[in-house]
Amino acid sequence: MTLLLDDVTLTYPDGDGRLTALDTVSLEVRAGSLTAVVGPSGSGKSSLLAVAATLVTADAGRVVVAGTDTGELSRAEKSALRRERIGMVFQQPNLLASLTALEQLQVMGHISGRGPRQVRDRARELLAAVGLEDQAHRRPHQLSGGQRQRVNIARALMNGPSVLLVDEPTSALDHERGAVVLDLLASLTRERGTATVLVTHDRTHLERADRVVTMVDGTLRVPVG
Ligand code: ADP
Ligand code: MG
Q: How far is CA 147 from CA 34, 154, 168, 187, in A?
């Protein structure tokens, strides 16, 4: 299992007490497969991704990424794991305004200490994979919303992550552009072998998923089989 959550519980401070955002959640996601997570607003979907990303630490349970039990890692080791093993794509692309599409990707490679030529080749290859080879030198304001989200996806894949965590990537896009982004996420998941978790509100995305799980009040309902 490339991503494993085992009996994960997460609480947040809430007035005098604590709010349970995740209640003994278990989930396994295989390399090259796409799991969609649906459920009402406030049910804990983003919290699930935050725990899987090691951005927040669970109160109890285990989070295992590419065979590494993250509970045993120091803060520095966790950030290295995030950089090298985990790709994240959120609703808003969060691109740097002054950088071209190509440079957004190159930054990720440089932070990881790879050589400039290797970084440039990989960035070009990924821009082509998301259909943006012709837009490599455009800055975010010169790209459409759908193109920005595709840059964001390519950037998340820059360091060859094992796990890809995606939170409502199409909510800022119209249906047609959303469908392009979703097709891309599904095909990149197979091609690059990522264990992908996709939080989505859009029912039409579900046919692209290998499995659909539902969050309700911090509890995960996983279909049998
Ligand atoms: P979803 O993504 O399904 O809308 P979230 O994971 O964002 O759900 O939130 C789950 C619950 O945890 C909600 O009740 C939300 O208000 C609460 N919550 C989320 N993040 C925080 C936080 N940083 N501090 C306190 N409560 C939070
Ligand atoms: Mg959310």
A: 22, 11, 16, 17
